[in-house]
Amino acid sequence: MTEMNSSSRAAAGFSLKALSQSVNRPSITLAAILVALVLSAMRPPFLQYLRPVGDFYIALLKICVLPFLLSTIPLAVRSAMTNGSAGGTLRSLVVWLVITLASVASASVMVTSMIFSFASVDERTIANIGVLVGQSSDSMDVEFAIDSQRTSGNFVIGETGIFSVIPTNVFAALAANDSVRVLCFALIFGVGMVMTERESGYSIFGALRHVQAVCITIFEWFSLLVPIGIVALIAPQVALLGANAFTVLALFAYAFVGTSLLLLSVAILISAWSLGVPFGAVFTALLKPMMLGASTRNTLVCVPIALEALKDDLKVKRELCDLFIPLGFATVRFGTILYFIVATLFIGTLMGRSFSVPDLGMLAVFSTVASFATLGLNGIAALSPLAVVLRPFGLPYEIAVPLMIIVDPIAELFRVMLNVTINCMVSTGASGRDTTQTIATSS
Amino acid sequence: MGYISRFGWIARTRWLGLARLAICAALAALPCGAQETSERARAFHDLQSIVDAQVLRVAVTRFDLPAFHVRRPDGTLAGAEIDMAEQIGRALGVKVEFIDDADSFDAVVDLVATDRSDIGLSKLSQTYRRLHRVRFSEPYIRLRHALLFNRSVIGQDAERRSPAEVLQGYSGRIGVIGGSAYVDFAKTNFPAASVVEARTWDDVIASLIAGKIDAIYRDEFEIRRIVKNNPALNVKFGTAAITDQEALLSIAICDTCSKLQEFINYHVERTKHNWTLKALLATEQGK
User: Fold this and answer.
1) CATH number at residue A360
2) Contact, A129 vs A143, CB < 8 A?
3) Is A67 inside a domain boundary?
4) How many inter-chain contacts (A to B, CB under 8 Å) are there?
């Protein structure tokens, strides 16, 4: 009787997984994107009704994100600490991460500055951009007091950077869905759990593994809805960008989207090279988390599906993936680095400022540092560290904000895709392939 | 002797009384000295003299102040300030006569100070200098002082200060309308800056666009109106509001007209809710 129950559960689990894989085939994902883009271009009246459907889908995906992180991180810490080769793997991860950060920043600066050096902004475009800025801003750019003692509110520094990751109250962080602090807590707590397990021999890692399995099962249920989610989330989002806005900001869009596609291709190519598998196999495996990221515009909800793609589809070594993917997705924002670089060069072009080679080097460094200052910030607030990048070049943050808000519906999709894909590349490069498993090169 | 003395005293008293009467009569009958008449007229130049004359003389600038007062193609005046002057005239029960030959804001104050008009209405800010010469009503609108500045110049600060910090201690060239209160305001609030006066506001704006000056200074309405009507300027020029400096736009009133001031203050208090920055910017004349 018990055997029958377990076999039927296994059959049900298998069929669910098979159904999920079938629904999330690359052809269906690409078809969903195509439908979304066609709908956003046609702008049918019912497009606005898709937004609540998309919001509902994101809400479903978020259900298990925090329990998943709380179970996965301590398990990954344990795996890394008990594995004899953990030190070497972590060193390899740090090297890959540093090189990737430097490469992404350098490549972004070089490619984007080349694009802007060939393209020029005419007076008519500047006038149209002025119209866009004027329409989106109904207040003064700067406010100050002649009596400096009365000046307030202009230089308020929020809780960003390193302070935004310290989990002073993990329960408040959990209640506020503050995933960066939760991750930090899980990391510290995981180390503590391993240490006490060694001393007392007692642990709850078995229970955590069960919690992780439950979360994965629930994610599989919801992944059946990915194609619907892609259409419901991407179509209204892309439609937000008016035709006029796109025409005016075409130069920014071309530079950002073009460089993003280049970086995505190179990241997939390096992943394929480091795993020794064809480009198509990596593209097929990573398409699912990339598109989930693009549609939800939320990197963390892609963690389970990215881990599945890396561990199950690409057979990347599990230990480092489990540890790095949640941390990397939450803290290393490659898309933001590119975004800050393109925004700075674009505003510079508008204002007629040229950038020397040392300027470009400084821009790469400032953008990388500023991307870490966005930790704990989301939406428009995450743009505020851009001021740190613009100011040394004498460029106005006040004009950048309305322009970035206009172009953000498109830019956000690519930012998340870059965060997901390049973090996966770092993980594959640092971990390498689990040679005990073989990869299916066709779906 | 005593009798004579008594009669003598009576006679002297009578003579003194007659002399007194004569002096009094002479004084009373004196429609004489023009100087004395003028003093008397000045002493009584207030609400009642305006009501008696059945006309309220209102000085305004010769040039348009869009949304406040503009000249229509048919030559008549229109705008929120014109409406307000006519409301005051109706409340007084007199007709309103506009004197519109003042070629500067200070010239409007001059007209009121020299009794050539009873009140002056032209976006007049209260200043210490003007208060020496005329009275002012309570402000009918308070507008923050504001700047339109060249983003590139303000952004290229050697000490890498924020635009707010650079503007706070601004030491470049700042443009204002000559003969306006902003000449005084600029000298007081930006002592390190070079104040460049131009004849009209359009000339001030043209100097900024041509790069002859790096910032222009007036109230928030005028600064926002520039970028509202020419949004292309948003890219190269930024707007800044000064949070602790306000232009108190008030009606200039003849220096002796205390009762008229009271009357106008009552009207301003009753109607000032109609005066908002948003409403002014939304008017057809504000475009």
Assistant:
1) 1.10.3860.10
2) no
3) yes
4) 105
Min Cα distance B174 → chain A (Å) is 15
Question: Nearest-CA distance from B250 to chain A in Å?
Answer: 23
Output the pLDDT for position A100. 94
Which structural domain, as residue segments, surrounds residue A279?
A: 48-140+155-431
Helices and strands (DSSP H and E) totals, chain A: 19, 1
Residue B238 predicted with pLDDT over 60: yes
Contact A343, A350 (CB under 8 A): no
Q: Is A118 part of any domain?
A: yes
Q: What is the pTM of this model?
A: 0.69
Answer whether A290's CB lies under 8 Å from A415's CB: no
* Nearest C-alpha neighbor of A334 from the set A98, A67, A13, A89: A98
A355: closest CA of chain B, how far (Å): 14
Q: Hey, are the CB atoms on B240 and A141 less than 8 Å from each other?
A: yes
Q: Which of B163, B228, B244 sits opposite A147 (nearest CB)?
A: B244
**DSSP labels, A5-31:** HHHHHHHHHHHHHHHHHHHT-HHHHHH
pLDDT of residue A79: 78
Of A127, A142, A352, the CB nearest to B238: A142
Per the structure, the count of domains in chain A is: 1
- CB-CB contact of B249 with B140 (8 Å): yes
CA distance B148 to B233: 10
CATH class of B39-140+250-286: alpha beta
Query: Chain B within 8 Å of A151 (Cβ-Cβ)?
Result: yes
Report whether CATH 3.40.190.10 matches the domain B143-248: yes
Listed range (A376-385, B19-28, B133-142) with the worst mean pLDDT: B19-28
> Contacts of residue B160 in chain A, CB cutoff 8 Å?
391-392
Sign of the four-CA dihedral B90, B95, B101, B102: negative
Q: Is residue A105 part of a domain?
A: yes
Cα–Cα distance for residue pair B255/B46, rounded to 1 Å: 9
B244–A394 C-beta distance less than 8 A: no
What pairing do the DSSP bridges indicate for beta strands B135-136 and B173-177?
unpaired
Q: How confident is the model at residue A246 (pLDDT cuts 50, 70, 90)?
A: low
Q: Where in chain B is the domain with CATH 3.40.190.10?
A: 39-140+250-286, 143-248
The Cα A45–Cα A39 span in angstroms is: 10
ipTM exceeding 0.90, yes/no? no
- Reply yes or no on whether the pLDDT at B18 is more than 70: no
